[in-house]
Amino acid sequence: MKLGDLFRDYQWLGLILFLSFVAACDRNEKPVTQEQSASATPGTDNAIATDNATEDRTKNRLQSVKQQVTNRKKKSAIEAISFDDIAFKMDKEEPFNRSMLTKKINDFEGTAIKIRGFILPSFKQDGLTQFVLVRDNMECCFGPGAALYDCIMVQMQPGESASYSVRPVTVEGNFKIQEWKDFDGVIRAIYHLDGKSVY
Predict the structure, then answer these.
(1) Measured distance CA(57)–CA(190) in Å, rounded
(2) Measured on CA atoms in the order 185, 186, 188, 193, is the torsion positive or negative?
(3) Residues near 161 by Cβ (< 8 Å), separated by ≥ 6?
(4) Which SS3 state, helix, strand or coil, does residue 162 take?
(5) DSSP 3-state of 98
């Protein structure tokens, strides 16, 4: 074989090897087909859905925490109310039922409040640890014939007391809905206050 022919053969061999290498690279770098793209989409959608669900749970937790903080602040703050705020519809001869109370009244349960009224007169003038707070200084606000929402049974907290006055006083304390029955078993009061201070 002549030297020229051998050289041409090597040239052809090199060209074949080069074209084979290029073809192999093309196979490895094939573009993503529509079918492959479609098959990858569900996984992407699932990931997005998971992220959205996690974000929603985080928002719900934050809202829950904010609501708890708001409720604590509401419970700790002293809310000024009047006897009008705790009044409800009830006939004088009608027996009391808890369902008569409005949502507004029920929301006061366990809340620190302050309310202005009169101390119902008793035999004791000073060092009162318990007394009845009434809407006004008329006798119709407590006892037979009186509206249940016109009086509050006040029990002063340990170490606290009050003195009787003919003038209106303001009482601060924790409000409760608690029935109080007279010796004859008739409900005479439904509101209770753990008195903190009287002024």
Answers:
(1) 42
(2) positive
(3) 126, 127, 128, 129
(4) strand
(5) helix
| Residue in the structure block whose two tokens are 């439904």 | 190
Tokens encoding 140: 């119709």
Run of H or E including 19? helix 3-28
The 10s digit of each residue's pLDDT in 180-193 is 888 888 888 999 99
C-beta atoms surrounding 54 within 10 Å: 10
**Which amino acid belongs to residue 7?**
F
- Classify the phi-psi angles of 87: left when phi > 0, otherwise alpha if psi is within -120 to 50, otherwise beta: beta
Q: From CA 66, how far away is CA 155, in angstroms rounded?
A: 33
Q: Which residues pair with 4 in a beta bridge?
A: none
pTM: 0.60
* C-alpha dihedral sign at 92, 93, 98, 99: negative
Token digits of residue 178: 């608690």
